[in-house]
Amino acid sequence: MTVSSEAIPLQTGDALVLVDVQNDFLPGGSLAVPEGDQILEPINRWLARFSAARLPVFATRDWHPPEHCSFAARGGPWPPHCVAGTRGAQFAPGLQLRGGSRLTVIDKGTDPDADAYSGFQGTDLHTRLQGAAARRLFVGGLATDYCVLNTVTDACRLGYEVVLLESAIRPVEVHPGDGARATAAMIQAGARVLKE
User: Fold this and answer.
1) Could you tell me the CA-to-CA distances from 102 to 72, 169, 179 in Å, in that order?
2) N or C: which end of the chain has fewer CB within 10 A?
3) Distance from CA of residue 94 to its chain's centroid?
4) Helix axes 178-189, 149-157, angle to 10 degrees
5) pLDDT in tens, 131-176
6) Total domains present in the chain
7) Angstrom distance (rounded) from CA 100 to CA 67
């Protein structure tokens, strides 16, 4: 199901969930998502809307140990990326995150022996969302066909209403069409796609 932004005014119970908007996933990063930097402008617009409405923002980030199991050196599919404390793991400098009580950072992938594509896997994101009385999640970030896909499907499974911000996601596309298939899977799970 696709809806327009005008059809969804923000309300109490809404939360913005940003998935892995980090340097290593942007052009020039060690695991760059094509056109990944193009999500920054739409995400910043949503950040401004949520800030004005005094609604919570949750930002997940890969925060891997140097020997993480997803890295090629350990037989994983990816080059080293988002190693905790490095520049590559930092949020994109163009991301206009506002500090304070309405911003919560969620680190994931911190166990060297466990993959964590979903922002819910091995984290307290669900508990924190419940603590914020969140019922509807607006989701954007990187990448559509991996961490966004897994975060959204987990959110739907946990009973959240999910609005996928189409302009604020981009796929890796290891295989052509992965992005479209991921979006279809998220819709199948119950998410709505918001076009702007």
Assistant:
1) 37, 22, 30
2) N
3) 16
4) 10
5) 999 999 999 999 999 999 999 999 999 999 999 999 999 999 999 9
6) 1
7) 32
52: amino acid identity, one letter: A
- Give the CA distances from residue 98 to residues 14, 46, 49, 161, in Å, rounded to whole numbers and listed in that order: 17, 12, 12, 24
Position 116: which residue type? A
Q: Which residue has the higher pLDDT, 194 or 2?
A: 194
Please give the structure tokens belonging to residue 93.
Answer: 């400098």
- The tokens of 68 are what? 């993480």
3-state secondary structure of 181: helix
Tokens coding 138: 């607006």
Active-site residues, by number, are: 20, 108, 147
Tokens of 70: 């997803």
Region 85-110: mean pLDDT is: 92
What's the token pair of residue 109? Answer: 């992938």
CATH number, position 73: 3.40.50.850
